[in-house]
Please model this.
Amino acid sequence: MLPDKPLFFRSTIQWSFRVLLLAVILGLFLFFLSTDFHKDLIFNLNDNKLVNNNHKNFTFQENPVQETSVQATQVQENPVQETPVQDFIQPPLTQLNLTGKPVDPVTLYPKWLKPLQDLSNYSTNLLTQWLAPGGEPCKDSVTDDIYVHGLDDIYNLEKKKNSDIVLATGVIHEYVIQTLDKFGNKRCLGGDYFETDISGDYWKSRPPVKDLGNGNYSFALQVHPDFTGVYNFTVILLFRHYQGLKFSPERFAVDKLLRVVSISFVNGNSSSGNSNAVNLVLPELKKCRKRDFRRDVWSGRWTRPEKFDVCLISNDGRFRCPKYSYPCKKPWCDGPLGSVESNGWVYSTHCSFKLFDSKSAWKCLNNRWLFFWGDSNHCDTIRNMLNFVLGYEIATVPRLFDMNITNPKNPLQSFRVTNVFNGHYNHTGNYQGLNSLYNDGYREYLKGFFSGEVVPDTLVMNSGLHDGVYWPNLRRFIKGAHDAAEFWAGVIDGVRKRKVVAPEVVYRTTVATGGYARRLVFNPHKMEAFNGVFVDKLREFGVIDYVVDHFDMTYPWHFDNRCNDGVHYGRAPAKARWRDGGIGHQYFVDLMLCHVLLNVLCSR
Model:
């Protein structure tokens, strides 16, 4: 008996069905060859990534660092596909897949990049991650290298074609960092602290990073369509597994440069790895209103409208560039751009800020009482606001300061400003931070300002730099932050019980310490964690109304000391040799903070 014929060749099957089936199979085969799907099945890891331990100067760099050859470490396992971050584009279409390529065909809902960090129940979650046990090789090993899923893949593909990485402006480009040990094995525990930066001639920002807790870290890139050009994307491993939170972290600092990659951001052109043109118009960036300051974490950027001529320092140490009357380019700010003395740089976040002239600032502050409680950066901010914005000349603002300020051009306008240092309960001391509040005399001194029938209209508070020195570990700081929040809740509640209007409370996050200070006890890893903990506790007790994220504002300028002395961003101008060897220093980051604070105080 002859064997049965294959089903396809049996006479009972109509020839029309056979033709249709062959056409379907051929169509699927041609589709497979014509797309990048077959390429995504193979991870080409034979090329090496950039390893360069010489840090670049990311500040005021007129020409981006030229990209050097990227050499990728051999990964011992196939890269694991992670769940895409959910904070970006919501269903029905995600904006990007894990490899960083736009969905094909490109149908996108334009959206501004948001912070990846969530401060809800932040203290408990951070403590849990900090105490996470090891016990497995992938957890007990230490990070020595990284593989950037998507970005490294695109780079390797473009390198073969002898072309650069090209990404579309407006799009949120999402990638995942996989940490590796020195043998190239994947790690499966979080806690590493990566510094990220995206810088060009007209745009500087910090790409937000999220620790996924399993050795992977998601981050995202976005540049507005107004700012096409070539950018340097930089990744630095500053600390491994929460070692930046240690009592003496300097000896654990890694400070290893892992990536400097040149990326071209373009409008209306194809991104690398995708054949469709992407033309996005992001939602209009609106001017900040009161409710915009309820966000606990910001993800902003510094922009400038054009490259100005070389800005020379004057004899009084100031950089008056551009001219005071130079107008802001909307929507990035509103007002005289020259008032920031930044050579054109201005900060914006989920909203843009008004830049105040003297007249509008005095109108806002007239008959008000501002109370500052925090570190010595407050002294700089108050002095800079008085000198630069209000036109009231004052040489210094001490750690304890209480004064009625009268408009020199209009004696009918005045306001009161008070500053109380919290680095120590004795204003001549240092390195106590929130522990100062355990001193009975200091607590009573603070309560005195809020015990009368007239109390401050606004309380601007901060803590962090001195806490970084004092608190021996994270658990102890969480307890100190809890007690500090409870104290201030009692003070504010006491005001309300007397039927007196309670002050609005603004929390100004601690700066990202710069240059040499990045490795010290108040390093950015610790300050970002302490910011999150204290905001979490203040929210828990219902103390704060608004947040100004000065950490995000200072971060793009913290890689060196051009804009800071390590811990201060607003030191008074002086035509003298600065810490980095240059003559004079940039003070505009703190001056921008003055305008941001005025936006909180004056907006509705």
User: Anything to note?
Assistant: The first helix runs from residue 15 to 34. The longest strand covers residues 410-421.
